Transcriptional regulator
Amino acid sequence: MARVRHDRLDCSPGCAVEATLQFIDGKWKGVILYHLLSSTLRFNEIRRRLPSVTPRMLTTQLRELESDGFVARKVFPEVPPKVEYSLTERGRSLEPVVMALKAWGDAHAGVAAKAA
Amino acid sequence: MARVRHDRLDCSPGCAVEATLQFIDGKWKGVILYHLLSSTLRFNEIRRRLPSVTPRMLTTQLRELESDGFVARKVFPEVPPKVEYSLTERGRSLEPVVMALKAWGDAHAGVAAKAA
DNA sequence: GCCTATAGTGTCGAAAAGGATACCGTGATG
DNA sequence: CATCACGGTATCCTTTTCGACACTATAGGC
């Protein structure tokens, strides 16, 4: 599972913010969720969208997303192995969050532009 | 500055998501931003809201938020030192993001409840 | 017989993030 | 004179995270 940001809930109301962050933290989770919002993808399809992620990292991130209940992993017992990753209901519930992140990034970070 | 999540922008459109995450990542930044959305706060006022953060961490997080242009630090040359932290325009622009995070946390994580 | 693709796993090590603890100067207060 | 509050620093150490790289099984194609 991802880093546990706080065990103590001593951040009062703002804690919910961190609680959410806890789940989408992880170097690639944001992008993975984003891509899965558009469609179900296979392992290597995700890799192709994220060229610099190593298989090990991708596995880790997907497994965490799975155990957090955001992603469903469906294995097809075929011979070139086939595994599909899709969002669960819970995963889709993150859509507003992911979209807010993307909107801000597009508007303020310019995707590549450094902070003003 | 916070961890650099990616230098390569090879995550295509989803990259904006990570770009944003990059800024609010950092164990306490989310909550700090959240609290500053309500009011300007002094160093120790923030500490009191986040009892388990050490002064060192708080300084680090605030300095990063400052250098990312989200927070303004105003020093009053008084004698019990007085320093006020407030959000900049850029900081306020994160409001929808922070609120989306909080909304999801309230709705799905129950602030304390573990994943369903 | 060798290469390809798929979906991973294993091991190792470096680097970054975070935590604990102690300490600083100043001026007012007791 | 000693203590307190303020806003931090400095130092050290542990934990977590990430990346490189090699390696696996299976079936089909050439």
Summary: Helices of chain A lie at 15-24, 29-38, 43-49, 55-67, 89-92, 95-109. The beta strands of chain A are 41-42, 71-76, 82-87. Residues 3, 26-27, 54, 56-57, 60, 78-81 of chain A lie near DNA strand D (CB under 10 Å from a C1').
